[in-house]
């Protein structure tokens, strides 16, 4: 019998971070669908990524075997998570680093803020990290008088635009280059007023803006894509090289990492470094794969800290069905193929984790009642499962979470009545005949009375057939 609990399976605290939807998904999605520019931006970006990813995946004859290996490694890791994390702590400590355990977002923010304050610095550079977005670290640092500066280009766009990320891998996917130019002109100090919207010009402006920050800032905060338990090595993969500047130049490096990111060995890391780039950006390998192990005297940061974040993950681990969500390697493949995400974008999900994986991960981290509409933000088409490089069965988890979501009394009563009728053949036959009156409710069922009108608000009611199957059979 393997252990599956790290501690008390508490959910992420309310009022801290960015995991809970501000409004139900249907309302937020309806507003997003009314923005034609957003839909054009999303459609163009996801179509491009899908095509590129499909080409490089097609080059590997053993892609399905790699997926099988990734899935098996993740399942094994979750079964041994406590012991692997203890091994990771020992290895990091032996290499000169310091490990901190954070039960939730509040504790993680307190730890990181305290570490920065201890250096006497008032500014930090940041490598793109979903964990720090999850816990609202930027807001916590700002409240403590510390300026966080995002160095990933897309994250910088989001930060300067006072916006929110809308994609796991491409946080500014909802912006086109003309919109990015306007953000830079409005919010970036020292930018050339004649700046064009050519990608090279925009990147050059960001590079000039960040150069002084890199050279003068002595503290950096990073995320981690993976942590190798046997060596204490942390890894970040990225496309621009800004992350490597953050990981090498500062005197103090603080990494915030979800506890599920650990892998047992270097051999295991090999599998994920083949899966991740192809499934995410359609590249054969990540342009920048940075790894560091503790402290090396005279080279790189001399104070290295690792904050291991739970924030609801133990609660996810305790669910035998839902724990698959912890296998996620944040590649965004499920977002890029999801017909719902492609039309609504990430903001409609309310959480820093959008798309299909967000629809199963966020409700488990917060408690299903706090994100009750997200498990329904899917057509259950199964495209996400087909695309996932570690074979997370997202549709099955969605159905599982729908069963745990709170349901209105009227809906429960309607389902009980339907079960009663379907269990009685004569009543069921009469109900089928009565269903023809549904034609009187108008096109697509829009004329149904409450509470049935709620069901028809986001679905088309099938038009009743001219005859039931029983009547058709009787005539023949």
From TrEMBL:
Pfam families: Fer4_8 (PF13183), LUD_dom (PF02589), LutB_C (PF11870). Residues 441-463 are annotated as: Disordered. Transmembrane segments: none annotated. Residues 405-476 form the Lactate utilization protein B C-terminal domain. GO terms for biological process: lactate metabolic process. The keyword Metal-binding applies. This is Iron-sulfur cluster-binding protein. It comes from Mangrovihabitans endophyticus.
């Amino acid at each position: 019998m393997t252990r599956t609990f790290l501690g008390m399976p508490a959910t992420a605290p309310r009022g801290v971070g960015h995991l809970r939807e501000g409004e139900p998904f249907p309302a937020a999605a309806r507003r997003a669908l009314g923005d034609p520019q957003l839909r054009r931006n999303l459609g163009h970006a996801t179509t491009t990524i899908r095509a590129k990813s499909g080409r490089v995946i097609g080059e590997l004859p053993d892609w399905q075997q790699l997926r099988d290996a990734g899935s098996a490694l993740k399942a094994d890791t979750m079964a041994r998570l406590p012991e692997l994390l203890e091994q990771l702590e020992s290895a990091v400590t032996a290499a000169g680093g310091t490990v901190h355990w954070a039960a939730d977002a509040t504790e993680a923010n307190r730890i990181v803020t305290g570490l920065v304050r201890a250096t006497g610095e008032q500014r930090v550079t940041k490598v793109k990290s979903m964990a720090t977005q999850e816990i609202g670290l930027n807001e916590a640092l700002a409240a403590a008088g510390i300026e966080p500066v995002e160095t990933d280009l897309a994250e910088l766009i989001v930060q300067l635009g006072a916006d929110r990320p809308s994609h796991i891998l491409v946080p500014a996917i909802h912006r086109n280059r003309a919109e990015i130019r306007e953000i830079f002109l409005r919010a970036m100090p020292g930018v050339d007023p004649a700046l064009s919207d050519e990608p090279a010009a925009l990147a050059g402006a960001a590079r000039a803006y960040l150069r002084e920050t890199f050279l003068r800032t002595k503290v950096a905060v990073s995320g981690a894509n993976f942590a190798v338990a046997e060596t204490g090595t942390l890894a970040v993969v990225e496309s621009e090289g800004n992350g490597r500047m953050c990981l090498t130049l500062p005197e103090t490096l603080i990494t915030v990492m979800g506890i599920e990111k650990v892998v047992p060995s270097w051999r295991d890391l090999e599998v994920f470094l083949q899966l991740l780039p192809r499934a995410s950006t359609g590249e054969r390998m990540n342009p920048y794969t940075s790894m560091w192990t503790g402290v090396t005297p005279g080279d790189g940061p001399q104070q290295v800290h690792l904050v291991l974040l739970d924030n609801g993950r133990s609660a996810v681990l305790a669910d035998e069905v839902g724990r698959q969500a912890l296998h996620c390697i944040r590649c965004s493949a499920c977002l890029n193929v999801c017909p719902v995400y492609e039309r609504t974008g990430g903001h409609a999900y309310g959480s820093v984790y959008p798309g299909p994986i967000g629809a199963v991960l966020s409700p488990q981290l917060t408690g299903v009642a706090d994100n009750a509409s997200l498990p329904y933000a899917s057509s259950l088409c199964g495209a996400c499962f087909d695309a996932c490089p570690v074979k997370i069965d997202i549709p099955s988890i969605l159905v599982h979470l729908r069963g745990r979501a709170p349901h209105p009394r009227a809906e429960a009563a309607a389902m009980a009545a339907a079960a009663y009728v379907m269990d009685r053949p004569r009543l069921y036959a009469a109900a089928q005949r009565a269903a023809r009156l549904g034609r009187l409710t108008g096109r697509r069922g829009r004329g149904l009375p409450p509470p049935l009108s709620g069901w028809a608000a986001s679905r088309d009611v099938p038009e009743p057939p001219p005859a039931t199957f029983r009547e058709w059979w009787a005539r023949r």
